[in-house]
UniProtKB/TrEMBL annotation:
<dbReference type="Pfam" id="PF00561">
    <property type="entry name" value="Abhydrolase_1"/>
</dbReference>
<feature type="domain" description="AB hydrolase-1">
    <location>
        <begin position="25"/>
        <end position="256"/>
    </location>
</feature>
<dbReference type="GO" id="GO:0016787">
    <property type="term" value="F:hydrolase activity"/>
</dbReference>
<protein>
    <recommendedName>
        <fullName>AB hydrolase-1 domain-containing protein</fullName>
    </recommendedName>
</protein>
<keyword id="KW-0378">Hydrolase</keyword>
<dbReference type="InterPro" id="IPR000639">
    <property type="entry name" value="Epox_hydrolase-like"/>
</dbReference>
<dbReference type="InterPro" id="IPR000073">
    <property type="entry name" value="AB_hydrolase_1"/>
</dbReference>
<dbReference type="InterPro" id="IPR029058">
    <property type="entry name" value="AB_hydrolase_fold"/>
</dbReference>
<comment type="similarity">
    <text>Belongs to the AB hydrolase superfamily. Epoxide hydrolase family.</text>
</comment>
Length: 308
């Protein structure tokens, strides 16, 4: 961890935080929620040792990056434009993207194919955006994404301190069932207060996350991804032109979502990502990069050495 440098880049009027270890070809790690740059700590160190330059930004409004003046207007395109500006400021012509928020990694590859060598996603395959991605008729009303989209999260989260909210979400997302609340419940109510942290997630890890979310709050994270997910990619050609790797935990709750398993195993996903390799981790849950860092590191490094 001591080898990771922390920099700030002025991007479109905001000071954005970037964690980095400089060595060789650039690999950008893009986080989801409730994550931050720290989610990729194991991968950054391993890839640096293997000769790669590891870069992990905090999105605008996340972690150590500044919040935009109107967080509720943030879009996925804002995150893409921020990433492009960061790469330009570092003088990096081409990168490999690794992400567990697939919209960002694939969106960047679709918009700027000449700037991407490869894409790696963890836990979520390439998906269409808009209603096609999550058809409402198959989604229970208590599903966490719909609850947070409907702006119930603010009141739900507000009953607890930030550390407890982050802890509860990590516990929920590390389980194998879809987080669905009953009519008389909120999402935070799904977690028994006595439930321990996953064994691979320490109290120190939780404290690091909580400190940064106490700084940033949840306004931007609730907007992107949850309230911006209906936005389209902004391109007509939805075929990803670069090699890609999907690392999927078989106990990931996402894999239980309607149609996802068939979409992956039938090869339907390859209609959009023809050069896709898929690796399943039998015991993997949603945060496989933290749960099984050594295995994930080996998979990422092996894939990158084949394609860069």
């Amino acid at each position: 961890m001591e080898n990771i440098q922390h920099k700030y880049v002025e991007v479109r009027g905001l000071k954005l935080h970037v964690a980095e270890i400089e060595t060789g070809p650039a690999v950008v790690f893009l986080h989801g929620f409730p994550e931050i740059w720290y989610s990729w700590r194991h991968q950054m160190i391993a890839l640096s040792t293997a000769g790669f330059r590891a870069i992990a930004p905090d999105y605008r409004g996340y972690g150590l990056s500044e919040m935009p003046p109107e967080p509720e207007k943030t879009t996925f395109r804002d995150l893409i434009d921020d990433l492009l500006a960061i790469l330009d400021s570092f003088g990096i012509p081409k990168v490999s993207n690794s992400s567990n928020l697939q919209w960002t990694a694939y969106h960047f590859a679709l918009l700027y194919p000449d700037r991407v060598s490869a894409v790696i996603t963890l836990g979520v395959p390439f998906l269409l955006t808009g209603p096609e991605a999550f058809p409402r008729q198959f989604i229970p009303g208590g599903f966490y994404m719909l609850r947070w989209q409907a702006r119930r999260a603010e009141k739900d989260f507000g009953r607890f301190d930030v550390k407890t909210v982050v802890k509860n979400i990590y516990i929920l997302f590390s389980e194998s069932e879809l987080p669905i609340a009953g009519e008389d419940q909120e999402i935070m109510d799904l977690v028994d207060p006595l439930t321990p942290l996953p064994p691979w997630f320490s109290e120190e890890d939780l404290a690091n996350y909580a400190t940064l979310y106490e700084k940033s709050g949840f306004r931007t994270p609730l907007q992107v991804p949850y309230r911006a997910w209906l936005q389209d990619y902004g391109v007509s050609d939805l075929e990803v032109k670069v090699p890609a790797l999907l690392i999927m935990g078989e106990k990931d709750y996402v894999y239980k979502f309607h149609g996802i398993a068939e979409y992956i195993t039938s090869g339907k996903v390859k209609e959009y990502v023809p050069d896709l390799e898929i690796t399943f981790m039998p015991e993997g849950t949603h945060f496989v990069q933290e749960q099984f860092p050594d295995q994930v590191n080996d998979l990422i490094i092996s894939f990158l050495k084949k394609h860069i």
